[in-house]
Amino acid sequence: ISASPTLMVGTSITIDPTKDMGLKHSEVFYMTPTISNSSGGLTITTRKSGDAALIFDVTALKRGTYTISVKMNFKHNNVSYVGYTATYTINVVDVTQIKMPSSLNLQVGENYTFSPQILETGATSELTWTSSNTSVALVDNTGKLRCLRVGASNITCTAYNGVSATCKLTVIPV
User: Fold this and answer.
1) How many CB atoms lie within 10 A of CB 173?
2) How far is 55 from 18, CA to CA, in rounded Å?
3) Mean of the pLDDT values across residues 61-69?
4) Residue of 113, 124, 128 whose CA lies nearest to 164
5) CA dihedral in degrees (146, 150, 151, 155; nearest 10)?
6) Rounded CA gap, 128 and 168, in Å?
7) Are the C-beta atoms of residues 98 and 117 closer than 8 Å to each other?
8) Rounded distance, CA 9 to CA 121, Å?
9) Spatial contact of 89 and 3, defined as CB atoms under 8 Å apart
10) Distances (CA, A) of 115 to 70, 73, 101, 118
11) pLDDT tens digits along 37-59
12) Which of 18, 54, 131, 162 has the fewest Cβ atoms within 10 angstroms?
């Protein structure tokens, strides 16, 4: 078996090599995971499932690509398999950049909804929105902007890890 899931930093998945191979947990009698080139990028917590087989909770700690090799011994259809290896290549991504307009000119009373692009590909994040001048413009937690009066405000979008982008807003008269 070979699988390549993508995880965000700070998230976890459960891998179950027994299930992934179409085996019953009772057929597996030995299993051990090894992480190649981890450098602290992943942690693995081992859990029992059934009598002997193990499943693994994998938590992503930092960006990178990591390989988990799971050595297994099992018996299937009365045939013993020793030293079989299931391989998982885990791609860990994180928010590295937010793209949105660097400036906007809108009129008093106008609404605008930001649609920021979160990079790196596959990364997601709850975003926090702020307006530097709430008497000029308000922005809600979904990125919807409402222009209140003539003036200027910086609208900032921030990801969970502090990566941010700012739009310089100028509100002009109608």
Assistant:
1) 7
2) 8
3) 91
4) 128
5) 10
6) 17
7) yes
8) 13
9) yes
10) 41, 50, 9, 9
11) 667 889 888 887 655 568 889 99
12) 162
